[in-house]
Amino acid sequence: MVRKLKHLIRTIAIKLWEHTYEGRLKYLFQKHDSNTLIVVFSGFDVKPLYNYVRTLLQIKCDKMFILDDFGCRGSYYWYENGDDKPMRLVKSLITTKLNEGKYKRLITLGTSKGGTCAIYFGLMFGACDIYAGSCQYRIGTYLRSDEPVFKAMMGIDASDKERDHLDKQMPRMLSLHQHSPSKIHLFYSKDEHTYQDDIQFLISDLDKYNITHEDTISHFTNHGDVGKYFSPWIKARLTEI
Prior knowledge:
Helices cover 43% and strands 19% of the residues. It is an alpha/beta fold. An 8-stranded mixed beta sheet has the order 1-2-4-3-5-6-7-8, with helices on both faces.
């Protein structure tokens, strides 16, 4: 029953709100004539999906959910076959929406891959609040365990050079935004592998570069379960704004 309800809501949302930017980048936009824009980034799934549409349905802010259907199953909105077109499209779309709405406040959010992107683009655009659940940090190292996604992003001949390039992307973004006014809200569990593999290094660099973060530690052992815990948490946090 719950699965059918989720599917119905997703279908209705796509029908009402889906747009295509520059003939390629798909996104949903829900307008409430708010001075706050929430941008939601998607994680990995069997096929590319919009995340947290149902969770945020009652939040009365303008919302944009961006679909990552580049490459094999997603690309961190960075590369497709070695070309940075996904990144350029996302940067241009967010810039356009911010200018159109004259927003006073930007919030970015997502989990797993989506959380990584929330931090990356959130810092880039000076988001006031960034909500990231169980995100990756050393992207190249993470993707070498998923060769189809890695090669769809970086090219069929991609190897250690491209892995190292991807590993440097998040640390570089943090370095470029030292003392950022953005506040990063991390949500994670120390009982699943993402903490040891990525988050501990992210936290170390956030402290190194004097970027404010607030950590909420949950308890789950399966990375795929992050959405179950993040969803009620983010809904409660954003209901307060």
